[in-house]
Amino acid sequence: MQIVVKTLEAEDAGTIELADAVFGLEPRADILQRVVLWQLAKRRAGTHKVKSRGEVRGSTAKIYKQKGTGRARHGNKRAPIFRTGGRAHGPTPRDHGFDLPKKVRALGLRMALSDKAKSGKLIVIDKLELDQPRTKELVARLGKLGLDKVLFVGPAELQVNFALASRNLTQVDVLPSVGANVYDILRSDQLVLSKDAAQELQERLA
Q1: How far apart are CA 160 and CA 146, in angstroms?
Q2: Which residues contact 21 (CB under 8 A, 6 or more apart)?
Q3: How far apart are CA 4 and CA 163, in angstroms?
Q4: Which end of the chain, N or C, is less packed with Cβ atoms under 10 Å?
């Protein structure tokens, strides 16, 4: 498929041929969901922790005798039934991540790119470069291109000026091509690839 290449000034800069094997697939919701769940599970810290009855502070002595009081039988005050006792079956630190085959992960990324291309929300820019690291200048360029909540994917080595100008914009994310991922692509309204990034992604995923 052919797509028009734009500049940051919203002018035409030729065309680029995008591989159908990467940008022309029919998106499958089940594959995208599997990859997104895998990404979000890996991001979880898993540091939640509560104290069990063996870890809370307090005496281990039996609080009163077993029989003859007319009350329920109890052991010590650290039992989960008491207000200051430990927690039964509470969360403990663990890794929430799980394995997902590399082929499924790569297929998910191809489908996320194809979804943006199919819905007309994919733009290719010749270069993601600015003369000065000024946020105001970048905002003006975004206005010309009609972009709002956008993900920029640049080459492996991002230009410093562009990265600095964009980092103060809450609706703008910038990633190198090696960091392109399904979750960030799907959560953005528009996807902007630099010409170099498009070539790198095609070589990596074709």
Answers
A1: 23
A2: 110, 205, 206
A3: 24
A4: C
Q: What is the DSSP letter of 87?
A: P
Token pair belonging to 54: 């063996």
- Helices and strands in the chain: count of H runs, count of E runs: 7, 6
Chunked into runs of 10 residues, the chain (206 residues) has average pLDDT values of 89 90 94 97 95 94 96 95 95 96 96 95 93 93 91 93 93 94 96 94 90
Residue 165 phi, psi dihedral angles, 5° rounding: -70, -30
Within 8 A by CB and 6+ apart from 124, the residues are 3, 4, 5, 6, 16, 18, 192, 193, 194, 195, 198
Q: Whole-angstrom Cα distance, residue 137 to residue 166?
A: 10
Helices 195-205 & 102-118 angle (0-180, nearest 10): 140
Q: At what angle do helices 102-118 and 29-43 cross, to 10 degrees?
A: 120
Q: Distance between CA atoms of 202 and 22, rounded to whole angstroms?
A: 6
